[in-house]
């Protein structure tokens, strides 16, 4: 416990990694999920360098900031998608399975709450609207908020990455939920990129390949993950008790 208090990265691992003891864990799928995330970052970096999205330090900082914002937006979209997909899954389950899944959902919901709470530290430390409160608590209070904000930075940034890789630890509810949620998320983000005209400075063909590459790749990986889970006797009909 004390290690989590001292190390925000260790705390993020405890909060955002699936931990259900009887969960079926396929190490090959886990490695591919990690490499999928790293490959997406590498492709984004290649795209920004190749097509001159940034040419100096200030542009690079802006691009990195945009990428961080995009990761946070992905987490927000996932938070909004979570109750829809999980709710439909739980509602479709029968009998005791429904109650069991609802109990298991507490940990993923706790991960979402922890991420939102960590992000709330930033306005507490910097928002001009509560400057009077910071003046009221004095220097010791400001130091405590500053330390808490620094801790929250590491926790939130690492937590966002883990949340996207492990899909808010929804494997704790059922192994089929991470591929279902991941597929839904990437198609939502692709649609969002099209609507907001993201990467408008990139040539149309490269932009189309980049935007559509993620959902097509993740969909294929999710399908393959579901096929591998069948080897362990895990299928949708059995998961829903039908």
From TrEMBL:
Keywords: Membrane, Transmembrane, Transmembrane helix. The chain crosses the membrane at residues 34-54, 74-93, 105-125, 145-168. This is Uncharacterized protein.
